[in-house]
Amino acid sequence: MSIRPILIHPDPRLKKVCAPVAAVDDRMRALLDDMLETMYAAPGVGLAAPQVGMDARALVMDCTEKDSARAPMCMVNPEILWRSDALNEHEEGCLSIPEIYAPITRPASVGVRFTDREGAVREAAFEGLWATCVQHEIDHLDGKLFIDYLGAAKRMLITEKMRKLKRERAKAGTSA
Fold this sequence. Notes:
The protein has a single domain, classed as Peptide Deformylase (Alpha-Beta Complex). Helices cover about 30% and strands about 30% of the residues. The chain has helices spanning about 25-40, 130-140, 150-170, and strands at about 45-50, 60, 75-85, 85-95, 95-105, 110-115, 120-125. It is globular, with a radius of gyration of 16 Å. The two termini are about 20 Å apart.
């Protein structure tokens, strides 16, 4: 397992719709393991394959409390089957848009079908932070960022902040 660099917005790979994964094989499991290690190290609660530069419909997440035992979930080719009419607003952030947070309203619960790391097709229902996270990460697989839910002016301001951050990191020699 290894920690992979996380792409920072704006990067065209973050706006691309990801290709479906043909099979969950050892290479895919290695990617999922790397993504989990990268997510935990960041630290974050979710990470999608395009955030580490991979064109694959795969995500990882773990929304357990900080002091609780880890409960990592790996999803390949996830699709939302249903969304509740009830809505929740969560303060969202993103590892590809560091230190930026905004309240985003999404369905309070969702049902998702996905392939797990062993290749089995599963379905699961998610509520609260788990529901927000899985929707956020599936958005990544569809080339959508949480800031796309914001107004144009705010989105442009955040994008300019990220460009500045990337320039500063490039000068300092750190990854962007």
